[in-house]
Structure formats: C-alpha cells, structure tokens
Amino acid sequence: xxxxxxxxxxxxxxxxxxxxxxxxxxxxxxxxxxxxxxxxxxxxxxxxxxxxxxxxxxxxxxxxxxxxxxxxxxxxxxxxxxxxxxxxxxxxxxxxxxxxxxxxxxxxxxxxxxxxxxxxxxxxxxxxxxxxxxxxxxxxxxxxxxxxxxxxxxxxxxxxxxxxxxxxxxxxxxxxxxxxxxxxxxxxxxxxxxxxxxxxxxxxxxxxxxxxxxxxxxxxxxxxxxxxxxxxxxxxxxxxxxxxxxxxxxxxxxxxxxxxxxxxxxx
Amino acid sequence: xxxxxxxxxxxxxxxxxxxxxxxxxxxxxxxxxxxxxxxxxxxxxxxxxxxxxxxxxxxxxxxxxxxxxxxxxxxxxxxxxxxxxxxxxxxxxxxxxxxxxxxxxxxxxxxxxxxxxxxxxxxxxxxxxxxxxxxxxxxxxxxxxxxxxxxxxxxxxxxxxxxxxxxxxxxxxxxxxxxxxxxxxxxxxxxxxxxxxxxxxxxxxxxxxxxxxxxxxxxxxxxxxxxxxxxxxxxxxxxxxxxxxxxxxxxxxxxxxxxxxxxxxxxxxxxxxxxxxxxxxxxxxxx
Lengths: 267, 287
Known about the structure:
heterodimer, A: about 85% helix, globular, B: mainly alpha, MetI-like fold, 13 helices
C-alpha cells in the first residue's frame, strides 16, 4: 500500500510540474512581452514618470487617469453609503426583506455590462440634464456594476458576527440605531468593508464598456485612444495598471485571510 | 424586540434609499431593454425588432458569440481543471497553492483593454513572440492572414481569463473529494481508472459542468477585450450592439440594439439558471 501511495505521489508530482510549467509560460509570456514591447523605445518609461511632460504630450491620458481615480474613490464611497446601512438595517429589523435585497444585488451578474449600457442610455439622458456630462457621473452606473461583489463581501462580514445581539446590547445601554451602526457594528466588519472597497476600486479602474459607450472618459477609454497612435505608451500604461490591480487584489486577499481568522477566533 | 411593536412601514423607510437607487439605475435600465425590444420608433408595440433578429448578420453574430464562448469555456474548463487538480494534490497551505490561487484571483479579473494590449505586445504584428518566431524559426504565424483580430484570436485571448476563473470556481469541488474515497475504492480492488470513472468522475461532473457554464456566461458577456482588439466589422453580438448604439440609426430599427440586448440577457439567464441547479447538486455531495 505504501509503495502504491508513494508511486502515485511521484506521478502526481510529475503531472503537477508539467501542468504548472506549461500554463506558467502561457500566463507569464504576455507579461514579459509587455515589458519587452514597452522598452523598445527607450523614451517611453522616462516619459511616464514625468507627470508634467506626460500631460503635455498626452493630455487625454493624464485626464483619463485622474478621472478613473476619482471614479474609483467616489464609487467606493457611494457603494458603502448605500449598502452598509441597508445591509445592517435589514438584518436588524427586516429579515424578510433580506432575500429581495440579495436578489437585487446579485442581479447585475446576469445582466452583461453591454446590456446594462443599452438600458442606461435613456437614464443618462436625464443625468446629463440634471448634472451635466462629467465623467464622474459614471459612478452611478459603477455602483450598480460592483453591487454583487461588494454585497457578498459585506454580507459575509455581517454573517461572521452576531449583529442582533451586538445591537440589542448597545440599545439596552441607550444608544440609537445610528450609533449602533457607526460605533458598534461598523468596527466589527472593518475588514469586510475594506475588501468591498478594494474590489470596487479594482473593478472601476478596469471598466471600459459603460464609459466608452456613454461617451465619457476614463483610463481604459484613453488607453484605446492613445493606442491608435502609440501602442508603446498604451502597453506601458496597461502594464502599470495591471501591476496596480495586482497589488490591490493581493492586499484584498490579505484582508480576507485576516477576517477568516477573526471569525474563527470569535466562534 | 417584539415587546415594542412598531409599524413595519417605519422600518421599511430605512431601506428606501437603497430601493430608490436600485430602481433608477438597475430596474429601469432592465425594463428599458425588455420593453424597448418590443417598441416601434413611434412608441407603439411591435414585433419588428425581435423579428429583425432573424436577419442573417445578427444570427451569424449570435452564432459566432456562442461558438467563441463554448470553445473558450471548454478549453478554459479543461485546462483550468487540470491546473486546479495540480494544486489540489499539492501540499495544503503550501507556498505553491497560495501563489497559484492568489494569481488566479488577479488574472480572472484581468480582462478588457489591458488584456488586449498584453496580447498585442505578445502576438501582435510586431509583438514579442511574433518577431521572435520569425527571426529564430523563420515561422510567420500570420502567413495565412492576421487571425488575432478575428474569432481564433479572440478565443485565445479569452482563455487567458477563463482558465484562472475555472481554478477559482472548481478548486472547492476538488477539495471536497476525500482521500478516504480513493482508499475505499482501492481496498475493494478498484483501479485508478475505475476510481475516476465510477467514483470521482460522477461526483465532480456536476461541478465541472456548472463551472463550464459560468465560464460560458463570462465569455458571452465580455465586451471590452473584443472592442479593443477588433476594429473591423462586428463579428460578435456585443460589438453588434455597439454599432447599433453608436452608428446612425436605420429607419425602423431604433430599438434593434435593445432586442439584441434582450437576446443576450435571455441566453445568460438560462445558462446561469442551469448553473444554479448544478451548483445545488454539487453542494449536496461536496459540502
């Protein structure tokens, strides 16, 4: 029996390394190619670190980067303001409504962004009328787009703690619902809130469909625009954007690990 | 809480901002698509838009979209399952497993424009690999035409985010397989082949199929990668919708884009419904 198991372990290990090497090459090659491609012209990278020169040469690009950062931050704030109090409130007072909220939050998963943009066009005609055509108005659509992911993160955070008992304890000591949410529940779901915010930022920084088809601008839109004249610059910026997303999502997995540890410690 | 009876209406008021927001930016857009598909240019009810879906160029676009999604989902599912198996049999909590799952989490999100540029830098006309193969092996990968900007190219690019997604969704099912089941098979005289065909295979099949369906929906909904890569023609449905949204409106077809969008929603909903059913079946066995 021991011989069989050892032989299988060896076979599995050979198989594992073949799969890892072949797929590893497939996944690393485009990343390596991006580095090679963007260093062919030696002036590309020095240009990227000089913000003022970059603005002079590619004004669209720096504008797109700023717009994307603004959209990411505002979407995260809007999503949290919309979702966190509602999720807590429903758990405390309206358990029957929870299924409906969950259904609505997960709905965007079955509606592709390209479909959503078709339906959003008339809604944005009104947004234009009331708020103007600023690219920051995209945050309304983006908050919907990130709903499934941020809802799951926040819901998981709330499931890990006993919201009801915490709230009852706080209320018996005389605090109102606002205080219960802000200073009792919120500190306990900090890592879930952070994961939701990080996911939101990562998704918004990569968004192209809605921005491009509603005639607004952001990083991805200008990447395509700039790429038509200078593929090198677009490849270099894409590589930076990818690294940034990588760092964001790595930080995210760190939070998730910590929150799992935290919930284990509590039970 | 029951001691102090309060109007449910007052509690419902607390959810008002959420429902108002979701109504404006999610429900209304959905209804616009659903009802717009059946609305004529004059605002009356008509079936013309839906009938126009039978036009050969739209049917072809749906056919190509489905083909692209099926192939990239199958290739992604098979390679992703192999990769998932490779790390499921590795040391639990080891550095290899942690690195691969973290990388898969990032790469599954890596779609859109940046991915298109990554592949342009790799196998574009002057890409790294294209040039290298030409210089060192005298092999021109585009001797029969540049396929990167067509369906074969899109399929290749899509597998780049399909494989990592498969790893993420399929790994939990593989982890649910207990080594004791294999030992039980062996103690009853079963071979490795019998174990895979009679024990692990049937247990993993619903999870595998479900994951493949999720991959299909993922590819079918994707727009940005294709939009950045394909500049000539509109081979797939999302790109047809783009042209319906941005180009001059043909008389009588103002709502054709909505009809195509409705077609996409119906296909994605059916696929996701099947996925949910299979998911439930998986959960029964591999809790």
